[in-house]
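Give me the fold.
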Amino acid sequence: MAWLVITIAGVLEAVWAIALKESDGFSKLVPSLIFLAAGGASIILLALALRDLPVGTGYAVWTGIGAVGAALAGIVVLGEAATATRLAAIALIATGIVWLALQEGAEA
């Protein structure tokens, strides 16, 4: 269950990152409210997941999912560049997240 919770928390981290960009320095109300709601929910879910996961693994997976999600959303939603090197870097981060999660599962 902790893995599902940390995954949702990571997705919400990507949501708040995109909302933060769209808030234009908190000058737009709706994206600012989305940022606050997603950010709060993400932190709460992270705290719940860390009841059962080691902090190093949980935090790394949370930030990794958020980073990959924000980078992909930037490409898909915001039209940011999708260069080969950028996509390769995103793939390396995703690989690291999966590898770390699998190592945690193997040690349990």
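Residues 84-107 form the longest helix (24 residues).
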